[in-house]
Amino acid sequence: MKSSIFPLLILAAAIGLAACGNSENRGARAAASASFSLDMSAPSVAKGCSTYRTNCAPCHGLNGKGDGPAAAAMNPKPRNHCNGDYMDKLSNEHIFNVIKMGGATYGYPTMPAQPQLSDEEVRCLVAYIRSLSPTFKAS
User: Fold this and answer.
1) CB 135 within 8 A of CB 55
2) CATH of the domain at 85
3) Minimal CA–CA distance to 130: which of 71, 47, 48?
4) Is residue 7 part of a domain?
């Protein structure tokens, strides 16, 4: 009888470990959300613009309107970053996380993760994206 309990304990332990297997993503989300500061200085926004043109413009367009050349084949279409009514409702942390980890978790299935970008590059990218909204007010 005791020998039949041992395999069940092993199975329970394996299931428990598998459930914890995604702790890296949870840690990355927590790190991204912790104490987010946004530098809206001209050098930071310029660096973000350069990163945007390389990594984001193919889908979001050069001016951030969601009309890049790759957008034609996408459904749903890429977000219009110039739409202040929508963009101003998003936190900086949210935008950071969508860029860094991809949009699928947040309801943007066509937005791929950009893990190759450093946290500083993503912060500058967030600053540039904020600069596209005519209604954004940096605090």
Assistant:
1) no
2) 1.10.760.10
3) 48
4) no
